[in-house]
């Protein structure tokens, strides 16, 4: 028997949290979305509204459904609004300490039988679940970016995840119109275990001067039929997130093949995180992205 979900909490109003809030609200769930500051919440809500407007303009969502969905989303910075949620999805920055602190705060307010999901791209679900008072009710739910457009959700059981939890999360994924794939709880699961080493290798290719940003992305688009080049994709994901995932792979699998490229480290240290900060491997300040190398 799966839990009847009506209201879903989302922690983190960044690109993923906003997208998750949007698809949940469009599917008819009440949503409570929080971030750390009022400013981050407003920025998230603005991006979410702009995304829904774009979907209406492109005929993917009708105006009435858009307005109904917007009316189902409440926002704030306080954990109080999670009190009547049956499920909370954690989608804050890819940092284990940040996520652990959030989980502790969440457990203090959540009803005993409420479930917790995390949208982590790489961190052990077992380890995160162990920080909670309900490891059996925790399940990884890894959405893809942009959430409203991408069909896949990876579902990851921790060692303690109960079958009822998994079944509930799986039927939630179905109700959001997503295709669920099961992945075991190993660093970075399936998609990022394969994707991130490719992106990291593309950055090494740039670092070693094998090709320019433009040459690498063009080669991979035309040579492998990828819709986006790996450097463009890295900027889209966020270079901080890419680096965090490489660290999880490197630490968790202890293989030098996962060593993060020093150029990726340097970009993150410079605050050049990709699209979200206006600069990464491309400069986004003009009408068209301009390669930076
Ligand atoms: P982002 O940087 O766009 O957003 C992260 C948000 O979390 C920010 O708004 C930040 O203010 C907020 N945050 C940080 N600490 C917080 C706290 N203590 N409480 C509440 N909010 C807090 O990052 P994102 O791309 O949305 O990634 C979020 C999560 O989703 C990460 O775990 C990431 O690995 C995962 N993910 C990302 C992608 C991607 O392509 N970017 C894809 C799948 C999953």
Features:
single chain; 293 residues; alpha/beta; Rossmann fold; N-(1-d-carboxylethyl)-l-norvaline Dehydrogenase, domain 2; 10 strands; globular; binds nicotinamide-adenine-dinucleotide
**Overall CATH class of the largest domain:** Alpha Beta
Tally of separate helices: 11
What letter string, H or E per element, gives the SSE order?
Answer: EHEHHEEHEHEEHEHHHHHEE
Could you please say which CATH topology of the largest domain applies here?
Answer: Rossmann fold
In angstroms, what is the radius of gyration? 19 Å
What is the name of the CATH superfamily of the largest domain?
A: NAD(P)-binding Rossmann-like Domain
Spatial ordering of strands, largest sheet: 3-2-1-4-5-6-7-8
Please state the average pLDDT score.
97
- How helical, in percent, are the residues? 40-55%
Largest sheet: 8 strands, mixed
- Structural category: alpha/beta
Q: What is the overall shape?
A: globular
Note the gap between the termini: 55 Å
Q: Low-confidence parts, pLDDT < 50 over ≥5 residues?
A: none
In short:
By secondary structure, the protein is of the alpha/beta class.
Describe this structure in words.
- The protein has 293 residues and is α/β, with parallel strands linked by helices.
- The protein has 2 domains: 7-183, NAD(P)-binding Rossmann-like Domain (Rossmann fold, 3-Layer(aba) Sandwich); 191-291, N-(1-d-carboxylethyl)-l-norvaline Dehydrogenase, domain 2 (Orthogonal Bundle), CATH 1.10.1040.
- Helix content is 45%, strand content 15%.
- It is built from 11 helices and 10 strands.
- The chain has helices spanning 15-26, 38-57, 63-71, 96-109, 125-129, 163-175, 191-207, 213-224, 230-237, 239-253, 262-269; strands spanning 7-11, 30-34, 73-76, 87-90, 115-118, 138-143, 152-157, 179-183, 282-283, 290-291.
- It has an 8-stranded mixed β-sheet, sandwiched between helices. A two-stranded antiparallel ribbon has the order 9-10.
- β5, α5 and β6 (138-143) form a beta-alpha-beta unit.
- The model has no long low-confidence stretch (mean pLDDT 97).
- Bound molecules: nicotinamide-adenine-dinucleotide.
- Nicotinamide-adenine-dinucleotide (NAD) binds at residues 11-17, 34-36, 40, 91-94, 98, 102, 119-121, 142-145, 237-238, 241, 276.
- Nicotinamide-adenine-dinucleotide binds next to α1, α4 and β6.
């Amino acid at each position: 028997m799966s839990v009847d979900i009506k209201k879903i909490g989302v922690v983190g109003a960044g690109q993923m949290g906003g997208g998750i809030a949007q698809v949940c609200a469009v599917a008819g769930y009440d949503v409570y979305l929080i971030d750390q500051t009022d400013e981050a919440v407003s920025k998230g809500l603005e991006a979410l509204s702009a995304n829904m407007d774009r979907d209406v303009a492109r005929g993917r969502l009708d105006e009435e459904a858009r307005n109904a969905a917007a009316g189902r989303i409440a926002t704030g910075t306080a954990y109080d609004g999670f009190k009547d949620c049956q499920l909370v999805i954690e989608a804050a920055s890819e940092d284990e300490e940040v996520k652990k602190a959030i989980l502790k705060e969440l457990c203090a307010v959540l009803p005993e039988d409420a479930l917790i999901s995390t949208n982590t791209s790489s961190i052990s679900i077992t380890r995160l679940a162990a920080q909670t008072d309900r490891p059996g009710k925790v399940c990884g739910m890894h959405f893809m970016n942009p959430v409203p457009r991408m069909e896949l959700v990876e579902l990851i059981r921790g060692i303690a995840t109960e079958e009822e939890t998994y079944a509930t999360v799986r039927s939630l994924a179905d109700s959001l119109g997503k295709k669920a794939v099961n992945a075991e709880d190993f660093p970075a699961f399936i998609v990022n275990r394969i994707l991130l080493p490719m992106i990291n290798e593309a950055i090494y290719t740039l670092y070693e001067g094998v090709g320019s940003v433009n040459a690498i992305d063009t080669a991979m688009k035309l040579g492998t039929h990828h819709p986006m080049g790996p450097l463009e994709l890295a900027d889209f994901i966020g270079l901080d997130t890419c680096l965090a995932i490489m660290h999880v792979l490197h630490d968790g699998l202890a293989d030098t093949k996962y060593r993060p490229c020093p150029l990726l480290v340097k970009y993150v240290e410079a605050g050049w995180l990709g699209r979200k900060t206006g600069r990464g491997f491309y400069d986004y300040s003009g009408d068209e992205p301009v390669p930076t190398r």
